[in-house]
Amino acid sequence: MEEKILPTPRLSVNRSAWILAKKLCDKAEEFGVVVKETKSGTTLIDAGIEAKGGLLAGRIITEICLGGYGKAKIVYKQYKKLQLPSIFVYTDHPAIATLGSQFAGWQLKVDKYTAIASGPARALALKPRELYERIQYSDKSDVAVLVLETAKKPPEEVIRKISDECKVEPDHLSVILVPTSTVAGSAQISGRIVETGMHKLMELGFDPRLVTHACGYAPIAPVHPKFAQAMGRTNDAIMYAGITFYTANYDDDEELRKLVEKAPSSASKSYGKPFIEIFKEADYDFYKIDPGLFAPAVFMVNNAKTGSTFEAGKIDVEVFKRSIGLQT
Q1: What value does the mean pLDDT take over residues 238-254?
Q2: What is the C-alpha end-to-end distance of the chain, expressed in Å?
Q3: What is the pLDDT of residue 6?
């Protein structure tokens, strides 16, 4: 009997993440989230505005942001003499899971409401389009999941905009709300460690599709009640203590070595102070900050074509201690 070869199903970050979002809803009490339905039927999952949220919520939201094609684990790590809870992330679909889903590439703005949007639904709305052209990916799904980094519930106009942009019915949309100044928010932002490195490599001219496997970890920054300070701490967790490892296929070892040397945050002229201080000195204008700063502290890249491995960057515990207000 002749063996039939079945076609490989196309990866769908939304359909995969939808399963995780349903789990989050079904076990809302366990994950410390509050689930509500909007007038139009969209599912709102609050992971920290009124809800308790926490590490469990932060972990599964990280996996939802990765479109269900990456895993996250809460661990305890030592950074020189500093020990902190951390999140370890890994994926065998780096370009799609991180850039095609997790990347916070959608700036939502409707009237006075603004929020940073990330997660699978971006692959339906193609936000931003040029990124999806670079990784040659788009999703096809009748369900959508979006994660908003916000401390305010979105009004119905925002829900309608999301469903329209994604071309899904409102009752086929789940929106997860995660404030930065919460444990869940801090965990899921540190869970972007691999994505931050992938984006930096891409900005340096590296084709992200050449990365076949990726992993990394970063400390989960202690929370701060004020947004600006919380935002600074979560950035610093990646920039001063985040570690990444990538497996890639690259033709030229010397070119790859030079690229890796440019990748860490320490290669930036803005490096060396807690982010909140850098932000203040820039008059709270992101455009005055060197974009090269937004990168993991340490990069390791293994070239599967040659067997060579390159490392660059450093952990700066002292700056991170200042960032989190560590009292000694």
Answers
A1: 98
A2: 72
A3: 46
Decide: residue 97, CB within 10 A, 0-12 exposed, 13-18 middle, 19+ buried.
buried
Q: Which domain holds residue 166?
A: 13-324
The sign of the torsion formed by the CA atoms of 32, 33, 35, 36 equals positive
What is the mean predicted confidence (pLDDT) over 301-323?
98
Q: Is 196 within a domain?
A: yes
CA distances for 45 relative to 23, 100, 142, 159, angstroms: 11, 22, 19, 13
Task: Give me the phi and psi of 120, to 5 degrees please.
Answer: -60, -35
| Least confident piece of the model among 5-9, 107-111, 225-229, 237-241 | 5-9
Instruction: Identify the CATH number of the domain in which residue 261 sits.
Output: 3.30.1030.10
Q: Which residue has the tokens 């990646």?
A: 238
Q: By the 8 A CB rule, do 234 and 180 touch? A: yes
User: How many structural domains compose the chain?
Assistant: 1
Q: Report the C-alpha gap between 259 and 205 in whole angstroms.
A: 9
Give a yes or no: residue 63 inside a domain.
yes
Residue 85 preceded by cis peptide, ω within 30: no
Give the Cα separation of 38 and 183 in Å (integer). 25
In a domain, 120, yes or no: yes
C-alpha to C-alpha distance for 316 and 172, rounded to whole angstroms: 44
Asked whether the beta carbons of 73 and 88 are under 8 A apart, the reply is: yes
> How far apart (Å, rounded) are the C-alpha atoms in residues 121 and 129?
13
> Could you give the residue ranges of the DSSP H alpha helices within 49-120?
55-65, 94
Flag whether pLDDT at 34 surpasses 80. Answer: yes
Question: What single-letter amino acid sits at 145?
Answer: V
CA-closest candidate to residue 194, choices 220, 215, 218: 215
Query: What is the mean pLDDT of the segment spanning 178-182?
Result: 98
